[in-house]
Write a structure and sequence with these properties.
The structure is a homodimer.
Chain A (H helix, E strand, L loop, with lengths): L1 E8 L6 H12 L5 E14 L4 H16 L5 E7 L2
Antiparallel strand pairs in A: 1-2, 1-3
Organism (chains A, B): Acetobacter thailandicus
InterPro entries (chains A, B): PurS (IPR003850), PurS-like_sf (IPR036604)
Subunit structure (chains A, B): Part of the FGAM synthase complex composed of 1 PurL, 1 PurQ and 2 PurS subunits.
């Protein structure tokens, strides 16, 4: 199964990379940008052929390893 | 409008970061991982209140600045 884990900084956590991109976009001719937040995608190919098992496995990986739950939230989406 | 730009390496482009994560997951007790690909999310808050205009603006930003089209593909999704 293909599973997509999306990791974003929690609301309220400062995102200097997003700030830098926002600033660059302003400078480079996009004044309509109000805020930018940056996140990560981790696409996993799992051996498991069961959607529920794949989701559970990906959630375990995300909470234990892929996301830092102090400052980040994650979502898991089974792509099929 | 909130718009999400997703940037992934094109098929066939080597992804050393994904390989490293895959290796780490194996080592750390997840043998069911066959492949890992890593990507970026850029969430934009745009002043524009028109979904179509916001999408067009985000596509311009992505193709000009946020993605390197030689090695990366992007998708744009209007979140509302």
């Amino acid at each position: 199964m293909k599973v997509r884990v999306t990791v974003m900084l929690k609301e309220g956590v400062l995102d200097p990379q997003g700030k830098a991109i926002g600033h660059a976009l302003h400078t480079l001719g996009f004044p309509g940008v109000e805020a930018v937040r940056v996140g990560k995608i981790i696409d996993l190919d799992l051996k498991s052929t069961d959607a529920q098992a794949a989701r559970a496995e990906a959630e375990k990986m995300a909470s234990e390893l892929l996301a830092n739950l102090v400052i980040e939230d994650f979502t898991v989406e089974v792509l099929g």
